[in-house]
């Protein structure tokens, strides 16, 4: 298989799918540059190896063609600084301007194409559109793990036009290596910690993890569907009644497989969804009428801490409570710190998904876990055991 390291880029034009879908403030400045930083090693290596580099990405979800607030020109300043060069820009990702700028692009130079999603053909996975992108270059590199679960023109379809000249970028390689380490090669005890709002988004993750893990910790809003399934009273906490049977099935399967499911024994409840609401800590299976659980309680934190600190492999996705509100962030902070401590003691820890990553960054623990994944949806689908189109397009 081609890799960036074994491929000869000399005199070649490389088109690289990156994920520059970064948040911008009202002045259109980049407020979190994690995704740009993550793409830099691939870009710099290609330049070093003599490639002319053409970058393509999406930004946001434009619905009806070009819109200034979704223009990738807003990332140029940041990119120039990180690459220490003047990045060229094409105002459309296909068409005459892009073609001309790509044709005259020299070795070591970088051209950024305008937002791919200004063309609806991108998300439709249109082969004609993919071909036009492909015609700009000699070799295709996919380094956009965040969109690897989409069969879009630039993430998957384009690869067919480079049967012998396609490869993963360094970020993609790193993401797959780290995920495979957890999913295929984990040291035991292996503990997965799942939280976040809903069971519906995570049930396939739970099902696929059950025959891999020793312990499954469930917190966040999703815990209440499980607690209700066990006959608990959850007041007006978030519950998906239609998934109660599914939750029962998962608990039954866990028992058969000898997997310990840890549900919080206590919860911090509030009388409204507000940081300044009245709050108290109660047993999680007897939440009073009119109250809702917004965080795990101290006893649960302590139980989870012990399980986490005794694990050799840890996978964390989803906050334990509504951590965006400081009064309901304690459980998430405790879990994040326990993961950091376990890592310090030698465990391997992988954290992924927008909110858990935001939590890890907020509490400055990003360097205290083994790996922070850049892909939310893509990571979850990979954990579900699905084939990611962006990965299959390079491997097959
Ligand atoms: P997800 O995108 O499914 O990982 O969910 C993340 C969101 O779940 C965050 O915005 C949290 O505020 C939210 N969340 C966590 N715990 C609870 C809870 N007990 N009730 C309602 N929402 C929650």
Attribute tags:
396 residues, alpha/beta, Rossmann fold, six-stranded parallel sheet, 14 helices, 35% helix, elongated, binds adenosine monophosphate
- List the uncertain runs: none
Query: What is the number of helices?
Result: 14
Q: How many strands appear in the DSSP assignment?
A: 17
Strand order of the largest sheet: 3-4-2-1-5-6
CATH class of the largest domain: Alpha Beta
Ligands, deduplicated? adenosine monophosphate
Radius of gyration: 23 Å
What does this structure look like?
The protein is α/β, with parallel strands linked by helices and 396 residues long. The protein folds into two domains: 13-172, 3-Layer(aba) Sandwich (Rossmann fold), CATH 3.40.50.1260; 186-383, Phosphoglycerate kinase, N-terminal domain (Rossmann fold), CATH 3.40.50.1260. Helix content is 35%, strand content 17%. The chain has helices spanning 34-48, 76-83, 96-104, 121-124, 127-134, 170-184, 203-209, 223-229, 244-257, 298-309, 330-344, 354-362, 377-383, 389-395; strands at residues 13-17, 52-56, 88-90, 110-113, 139-142, 166-168, 190-194, 215-218, 233-234, 260-262, 266-270, 279-283, 286-287, 292-296, 313-317, 348-351, 371-372. The strands form four sheets. It has a six-stranded parallel beta sheet with strand order 3-4-2-1-5-6, with helices on both faces. It has a six-stranded parallel beta sheet with strand order 10-8-7-15-16-17, sandwiched between helices. Strands 12-11-14 form a three-stranded antiparallel beta sheet. Helix 1 packs across helix 2 (76-83), helix 8 crosses helix 9 and helix 10 packs parallel to helix 11. The longest helix has 15 residues, at 34-48. The mean pLDDT is 96. Adenosine monophosphate (AMP) binds at residues 195-198, 201, 220-221, 238, 293-294, 318-319, 321-322, 324, 353, 355.
